[in-house]
Amino acid sequence: MSNPVYKMIELTGTSPVSIDDAVQNAIKRAAKTVREMKWLEVVEIRGRIDEDHVGQWQVTVKIGFTVLDDDED
Amino acid sequence: MSNPVYKMIELTGTSPVSIDDAVQNAIKRAAKTVREMKWLEVVEIRGRIDEDHVGQWQVTVKIGFTVLDDDED
Amino acid sequence: MSNPVYKMIELTGTSPVSIDDAVQNAIKRAAKTVREMKWLEVVEIRGRIDEDHVGQWQVTVKIGFTVLDDDED
Amino acid sequence: MSNPVYKMIELTGTSPVSIDDAVQNAIKRAAKTVREMKWLEVVEIRGRIDEDHVGQWQVTVKIGFTVLDDDED
Amino acid sequence: MSNPVYKMIELTGTSPVSIDDAVQNAIKRAAKTVREMKWLEVVEIRGRIDEDHVGQWQVTVKIGFTVLDDDED
Amino acid sequence: MSNPVYKMIELTGTSPVSIDDAVQNAIKRAAKTVREMKWLEVVEIRGRIDEDHVGQWQVTVKIGFTVLDDDED
Amino acid sequence: MSNPVYKMIELTGTSPVSIDDAVQNAIKRAAKTVREMKWLEVVEIRGRIDEDHVGQWQVTVKIGFTVLDDDED
Amino acid sequence: MSNPVYKMIELTGTSPVSIDDAVQNAIKRAAKTVREMKWLEVVEIRGRIDEDHVGQWQVTVKIGFTVLDDDED
Amino acid sequence: MSNPVYKMIELTGTSPVSIDDAVQNAIKRAAKTVREMKWLEVVEIRGRIDEDHVGQWQVTVKIGFTVLDDDED
Amino acid sequence: MSNPVYKMIELTGTSPVSIDDAVQNAIKRAAKTVREMKWLEVVEIRGRIDEDHVGQWQVTVKIGFTVLDDDED
Amino acid sequence: MSNPVYKMIELTGTSPVSIDDAVQNAIKRAAKTVREMKWLEVVEIRGRIDEDHVGQWQVTVKIGFTVLDDDED
Amino acid sequence: MSNPVYKMIELTGTSPVSIDDAVQNAIKRAAKTVREMKWLEVVEIRGRIDEDHVGQWQVTVKIGFTVLDDDED
């Protein structure tokens, strides 16, 4: 289509490993049901503390994907 | 799953009674179709004015819920 | 008029009772001199502390009202 | 229903013509699958530059619509 | 006066035509009662959706004008 | 002292009852160890969702209190 | 009145001397027509540059004052 | 280069015609000296008021362009 | 220590004289109990109005200081 | 206690290695004196540049911990 | 030119004396190489603490200047 | 010079590897033409999605460097 339309969804990925990994986990999960994902923006970085270290990173991302002709919004 | 992923949706609940009630109404409605809701964040508090009082509270919340294996995003 | 214009004013209502009541008090007072108020948005929630409790809620709201043909801005 | 609930979605419309047109394109596309859309708010205005002019306007809007009794959230 | 003082008011102009036109309508209306308007800043762009298009643009602007010696604030 | 200095601390109060009650609980707890609390500002309103309602309100407040001559900062 | 209501207005004071002086000029001017001013908040600090120095400070303040029983809003 | 680096500059374009035209004027001027401009983001929309209309739109944009191997930053 | 950790506290200094002086008063008071203060950031500038001038400047600052080995957080 | 209260403190951790490591260093240091830390939020990511690379990451986090019955605030 | 274009640069001026002086120092330095500077906006006020007072004010300003026909951007 | 002046530039570094690496790439590139870089601040973290993972991290940083006597701004 000459004038593409994109939709944004907001997900929080988690990981015991790193900030980057938490983002990758969010994208990997989204890819199971969302096609044509194009870009992401990190909107919040949080974490659960286990005594003396970050036990779980929680990173919230906005994901933009192309709305296809047969998509439900 | 060891690395849960959460999705956020944004709803506006309304109520003639109070701010708190408007939030509860949004959650109650969402519970009809969304499972595993975990937390909310209030992002905007507005209201419709009827002459000399707030006739309808309008409270926008972000709701986070666990993305399950069989969910559509 | 086909293209209405609205004006916003900013008031702080107070109450010893609750957040909601502080907003209602601001609207009630504004209604004495402002006609055609339509909506409000809460922009700040503060309070005065009396020893071990909130003694006075102070809630700042933006109020939007229709500018009528005979209004002074 | 006496206490309506609204849902917000976020879309980016595009257009080679103008900012306004990019918004209209987002709404037109959303109307294919979403009923009862009520209002929008522009949250970001971006564009792709083709050498010496804006070749594609990209305008992100939040759209609010009534959640109906038979809606999936 | 060597040290001018300016006052800001906040108006929402509306238009079925375009964002720019909604701003112009706000200024035109304000000019009926406010003298010496100098500048504006767009603070919010919203709209009412009529089925599949923006039926009414609603643009909120802050307007700055010189406080004259005989002005009421 | 002619030029008082105030310190701000940030607390999150919780309550199953209401937003207002969560704030009151934060103040009540702080009053056990902090003297001369003067004002508060609500900075975040969140909640835990239990299935179909808010089970616990979580309201974060900034509290300002006078720094006394014998205080540790 | 047991539950006072306050109104906020926004002014820009100017001064060739300093930031503080620009604020004082805004307050001094407002005092000609507004009674019961209580507090201010600085919301923007700008200036006009004359070649190699700030020739005019422009400081925008929000001013809060008690709404009296005989006030027009 | 496998890992491109982009630089952002901030310009204010002006126009008596429209918001869109003010942006186009900023891009057109930048194109005289900057190569490889890729995208823009609107960061502020202001205007000069001439009596009862906007006489000059002033739109501030951030422009992103690829840093080439022979560029000065 | 090779990887220093800093702590931030938030204080409001006051002064009848000027914005700068209010900040200095906050630092002077903090220096009585806090060692190794490194930097500050102004986060809010407010004031109490006495009829027609600012009677008391109230400036809120964040202060960063090195956490030493024998500090209580 | 049925209605727990949490306190937030703000720390800046540093590391020559990575953003994640700077956060971990802040938590590790805080754990020496603070019990019952629950969560963190990243509020600022800065760094010191040594010629052509980041020599020290400086990451500011807000840490939330349960206020216990015998805590000083 | 009928449609002037302005460019913004961001500088941090410093001074042991005052906030105002730090701004003036930034402008004075910029004037050595930049022509046609028109306005500034203060975007951040920080300072270095020397034991019990602010030893160096650090004020970040955005400066707007006219882009001339023979300018490099 | 007793009162140093700093300039900020804004760059977006990219990397297929990690957030940290994207920042390092921006600094490395800037070091080719900018001397005396002192600090950076991360202002935005985005990424390009390649099907089911982040294919390119895009991290925007503000870089501060000392303005030297022979610098062009």
Could you please describe the fold and organization of this structure?
- The first copy, chain A, is 16% helix and 52% strand.
- Chain A is an alpha+beta fold and 73 residues long.
- Chain A has a domain of 50 residues: Flavin-binding protein dodecin (Dodecin subunit-like), CATH 3.30.1660.
- A three-stranded antiparallel beta sheet of chain A has the order 1-3-2.
- In chain A, a hairpin with a 2-residue loop joins strand 2 and strand 3.
- Chain A starts with 5 loop residues before the first strand and ends in a 7-residue tail after the last strand.
- The mean pLDDT of chain A is 94.
- Chains K and L meet through strand 1 and helix 1 of K and strand 1 of L.
- Strand 1 of chain B pairs antiparallel with strand 1 of chain D.
Question: SSE layout and pairings?
Answer:
Twelve copies of one chain form a homododecamer.
Chain A: E1 6-15, H1 19-30, E2 37-50, E3 53-66
Antiparallel strand pairs in A: 1-3, 2-3
Content of β-strand of chain A = over 45%
Biggest chain pair contact, residues each? K-L, 17 and 13 residues
Shape-level CATH architecture of one domain in chain A:
2-Layer Sandwich
Number of strands of chain A: 3
- Briefly, what CATH class of one domain in chain A? Alpha Beta
CATH superfamily of one domain in chain A: Flavin-binding protein dodecin
Could you state the order of secondary-structure elements of chain A as H and E? EHEE
Mean pLDDT of chain A: 94
Whole-angstrom Rg of chain A: 15 Å
Count the DSSP helices of chain A.
Answer: 1
